[in-house]
Every structure is written in C-alpha cells, then in structure tokens.
Design a protein that fits this description.
heterodimer, A: 564 residues, mainly alpha, Cytochrome C Oxidase, Chain A, 1% strand, globular, B: 61 residues, 3 helices
Chain lengths: 564, 61
Amino acid sequence: MANAAVFRTCPATGLKIHRPAEALIKANAVTAVVFLAVGGFFGLLVALTRWPAVHLLPADWFYLALTAHGLDVLLVWIIFFEIAILYFASAILLNSRLAAPKLAWVGFALMLAGAVITNVAVLQGGSSVMFTSYVPMKAAPHFYLGVILFAVGALIGCGIFFGTLVIARQERTYKGSIPLVTFGALTAAIIAVFTIASGAIILIPTLLWSIGLVSYIDPLMYKTVWWAMGHSSQQINVSAHVAVWYAIAAIVVGAKPLSEKVSRMAFLMYILFLQLASAHHLLVEPGISSEWKIFNTSYAMYLAVLGSMIHGMTVPGSIEAAQRKKGYTNGLFGWLAKAPWSNPAFAGMFMSLVLFGFLGGISGVVLGTEQINLIMHNTLYVPGHFHATVVAGTTLAFMAVTYLLVPLIFQRELVLKKVAQWQPYVFAVGVSGISLFMMGAGTLGVARRHWDIGFADSLLSFDYPATAFLMMGLNGLAAILAALGGLMYIVVVVGSILFGKRIGEQPAERPAPVPTEAAAVGAYGSAETLSIPGTVVLVGVFFTAFVLYYFVNWKYLSEVWPLQ
Amino acid sequence: MSDTENPGVESSQADDGNEPIPFWQNVLDNPFLLLFLGVTIPTVLYVIWGVMEIVTIPLAK
C-alpha cells in the first residue's frame, strides 16, 4: 500500500487524491490547453481563408494551416485531455493510487515529443498532407514518426489506466462495480487501444515508405486501415465526453443516472459497435462490397447510435430527477429553468449535450446512410458534422469540466468569473454557426479541403450558387466568434492556474468549491425514477427533428438522382 | 478504509453479498473481457473483412 503522505483529501468530494496522479492530470491538461490554443489559431486562419471575401492565406499556407489545425485539435488537444480524464476517472474517482506514475511520465514525454515533432514537420512546409495524410501524398518521415511516438505515449496512458483499475480492485478502494464515470472512461480507453493499434498497422509501413524502405502503399488499403484509427479516435472522444456529461451532472447538481444498468449497456454498445462507423468514410470507394459498407454503417453503427440516444435521454433525465428531488417541480421545465446556468461547467455540459445530439448526431446518421451519403460525401458537410461532434460536443464538454478541475485538481479559484460564465455561450454559438454553415455549404455541393471555392485560377470555370458564398462568409464570422470563446477559455484557465486564489486542503478553511452532493460522481447507484416528463418532451422534439431531417435528405436525393 | 471515508462505497450495490451477481454485471465488471471484445469485434468486422475484400480484388489484365 502506498504511503499515506502521497494522498490528500478533497474538501469538496471527500475523495482521496493521489498526488502523483494529480501532477500527471495537471501536466496532461495544461499541455492539452496549449495545443488547443495553437490548433484553434490555425483553425481561425483556415476559416478566414475559406471566407471568399477575405481569402487570407495563399494556397500552400492554407494546406499547411489545415494540416496543423487537424492534428493539433483533432488529435493532440483531445488525446492529452483524455489521458487526464483517464487518470482522474481511475485514480481519483476510485480513491486509488495510480499505477506506475514514472511510466506514465514516460508516456507523457513521448506524447509531447511526438506532438512537437509532427508540428515541426508541418511547419517546415513539406508535410501539408492534412490530417488524413492519404497516400500517395508523402509527408516528411518525421511527420509519421511524431504521430507514432504520440500514439505510443497514449497507449502507455491507457495501460496505466487499466493498471490502476486492477490496483483499485486489489486494494479494495471501492466495492461492487466501478462508478459510471469510470466505466465511460473505460469505454474510451478500450476504443483508444483499437484506435492506436490500427494507427500502428498503417502508419509504421507508411513511415518506412516515406524513407524509401517500402516501395508502395495501396491507397485503398491505406484509407481503410487509416480510418480505423482516424474515425475511432473521434469515438474515444464521444465516450470520454459522455463520461464527462455524467461527471458534471453528478458534481454540479448531484445527479445519479436514471438506471446504472441501462447507461452501462449503452456504453457497452459503444465498446462493441462504435468503431465500425469508420466505414462511412469509405461509402463511395469502389473495391469494397456493399455488404461490408452496409453492415458496418447501416446495421452495426445504428446499435452505437442507440447507445448515444440512451445517453442523450438519461443525462438530462438524471438532471431532471435530481432537480425535482430538490423541489424544482414547477411544470414541465421548471427544473431546467432553475438549473445553474451561471455555472460555466453546467452550461457548457448541457449545451454540449444538446448540440452533439441535434447537430452532430442527426447529421452523423445521415452521413452514415449509404444512399443519402452520396449527396454530401467529401463536401463541407463532413467537417460541418464533425465540428458539431468534436468541437460542440467534445471540446465544449472538456472546457466545461475544466471549470471543475481548476478548483478540484489545481486547487485554485477561477479568475474573471464573469468571463468564465459567458465563455461557454460564446463558444457554443460560434461553433454551432461553424457547423450549420459548413453543413449548409456542403449541401450546396461545396467541396471540403478546397482553398478557393471561386476556382479563380482554374482552366475550367465552375460557379457554386451564390448562397454557398454567403454560407462561407457566415462560417467565417462564426469562426471568429468561436475563436473569441476559445480565447476566453484559455485566458480564464491559464489566469486561474497562474493567479487564482489558492484553495486550502482543510474543509474548514474555505467553502467547498462544489456542493457536497458532488460525492455522487464517485458512487454506484441509480436515481431509480422515471418521473422525467420534461426530458420525455425534449426527447420527442429530438425524434421529430431527426425524422424530418432524415426525410428531407431522402427527398433531396430523389431530386438530384431521379428514378423513373 | 471505512465506508465514511470513501463516498463511493456508501451506495454500492454489492452490499448484500449473498445475492448472486447477474451475468451481465459480471461481463461489465470485467475490463479485460470488454477490452478483448472491443478490440476483436471491430478488428474482425471492419479491418480484416475490409482488408480481405481489397486483397481479393482481381488485378487488371
């Protein structure tokens, strides 16, 4: 058993906090935020270039910025933060010591070195192959090497997580089953192992190809295996941010899941089926059968979507149950009106949930349907969709939980509290605009990854509808707003860590930063009620929107592809 | 550690040690079984099936 001196007790939750785990959480979270700032800056440059009236960067710089943006925010920011979540959900929530902290630091160093090396390769200008790095486009060898090192470091982080689960069970730091938030993190870690293994299978040969030791990489083989990594890495996000939703709901309003069993089965759906949705990137590839495409998207993927819809009902349902228990029983939505909307953690979490479901979830099912995928495949609709899932869903959820991690883990009070209160709203409005306007432009046929939708220097001219240009302009404005929201987040978080008032470790010295009911986050147990009429109405609105939008796309397909 | 020291323990469902643990709870409580399933299923259904389809594409003559 580890020495008691390496633990402290959280005054808010009563959880035992392993100091080496705490240091690793801090390091991973801070590094994540730094790369969010870098990647977000490149994203703003991309959006301002795609805004036809501004068209900021020349073509070569545009593709460099697009590559850096994709890598830094889709991979580096997210995975560093997820490693912090894995350590929090294992060592902290299970009151356990972290397995092999020194090895965890090796993993952290590998991830950091890999991220820096890949960024250097991109900034040197010879590796503007974008996030997907499709062969036969060839990047510099250290581009692939950096990604591989980063992946190895992340795999070590997953191993530390599994090791900590074993230690916690052996040392009986908890009884029965692990808490639901930890189970969500376990789901993310399992998907991460598959993701990293797939990345190794394809990126190691590609590294050898880039240095001349392998003569040929088949493009279709590359795309197939790469997407097992590329899309699954975003499924890690989904699992992690759903776990974060449950955590914030528990910590802020003391919410317990409506049913532990149902929520766990929904996570099991993710473990078994979520990675298969990678196939939707290959729906127009010749050479792969319809059986493979349809099974992996239109059958297996829907089981994972069912998991998301369960979470989409149980998270707000658990909040409604907790609020009604406190006496907020007025009408259908009294519980929602009385929710702590001035708490940036809660506001960010709830908007992440709504935007992920309405924008990211519905558009994801549309993209995953083989027939209607054809009308927006490889258009700007695709980045519109994943900005709704990864930015409005994951990034906003991670930003929200940061407002709890700063007092709990960094033991600092937030500075600029008004800025913190507004931040999730500004960011959510900006990101919703990015997502909606890109999906609008994509529906009008605007290609993704294209420097100039005006085709100014093209031999054959082509005109998109004028509305597409309007969409791209609005996308640029929305990106500025989202960048402002991102800047507000970084200023508040960095300012709080550096200059925030210290919070003492003794409960009597300072008021608890979160309610004592926050202990629900580390507990097993259900709310055991289905008296959630407001949530039922919200779910009804969601299904109505889902059915209508699905129908509209089939109608649209019938118009562009008339069948007699 | 006593229950009062660890809030996660208080509402654990395993307090009644005499009840048999349901099958699905055993599955969900085994992280390494879940890891095996979560890696094997997509490896077989997505990667191996997909790669086999690509390698069996006939070469152009």
